[in-house]
Amino acid sequence: MPNFAIVPLFFMGVDFRAVKSGKVILPVFWFVYFVVPLLIVLSGFKQLWQVRRMQLRGLRYSPLSFAVVNVGLMGLITIIYVVLTEGIMALVTDFSWLRNFKLMQFQGISALLVLFIINFLGIFLLLIIQTTIGHFNAPLGIIIPFSLCILTIYTTWKYNPFNSLMLLRVNKNNILLLLATTLLMLIVYLITNRYSELDY
């Protein structure tokens, strides 16, 4: 692999054969890439509601409408993060490598776009999990997404939606599983906020 290819350095991950043989080295760049957005958000939405609850209720914001705004903010944070990081990676990577980059049946710029969509879904799902669990227990809201990333590295469970975040494991089925899991967790997050008072 050429030294000027930054994308595989961050997103190659660990293949299933290495996990089965027990020779897994933690992909530090991969782990850090997907954990940084969690550290950016932490329990910010919970704190925002605690500080502004009376004002928001006076403006007739229901917990559900607050949750919908939170989803939009999580999406915006994810888009900005992925565009900035992957844009910088693309700029410092040799163009000839980018032109030959393949992801499933896609090649070149279209493969980068698919990678962008996959990473967006993965980070968005991690943020939704963090915020949903953080609704009930803030420390667990941080610990569980971290644990899911680590479990993804060291397990071979083929129905793990985060498998598609590694180039060595990505396929059409786990991308669809990632999309379905993201939509399901989005619904769970909205329902959780709809039927609760958000009294963190």
Tell me what portion of residues adopts beta-strand conformation: under 5%
Strand tally, please? 2
Radius of gyration using CA atoms only: 18 Å
**What is the end-to-end distance?**
48 Å
Number of H/I helices: 9
Structural class: mainly alpha
Low-confidence segments, ≥5 residues, pLDDT <50?
none
Principal-axis shape:
globular
Query: Strands of the largest sheet, in order across it?
Result: 1-2
Order of helices and strands: HHHHHHEEHHH
The average pLDDT score comes to 87
User: How many strands, which pairing sense, and closed or not: the largest β-sheet?
Assistant: 2 strands, antiparallel
Helix content: over 70%
Write a concise synopsis of the structure shown.
A hairpin with a 2-residue loop joins strand 1 (102-103) and strand 2 (106-107).
How would you characterize this protein structure?
α3 packs antiparallel against α8. The model has no long low-confidence stretch (mean pLDDT 87). A hairpin with a 2-residue loop joins β1 and β2 (106-107). This protein has a two-stranded antiparallel ribbon. The chain is globular. The chain contains nine helices and two strands. Helices cover 72% and strands 2% of the residues. By secondary structure, it is mainly α. It has helices at 6-11, 16-21, 28-41, 44-58, 63-92, 95-100, 109-134, 138-154, 172-194; strands spanning 102-103, 106-107. It starts with 5 loop residues before the first helix and ends in a 6-residue tail after the last helix.
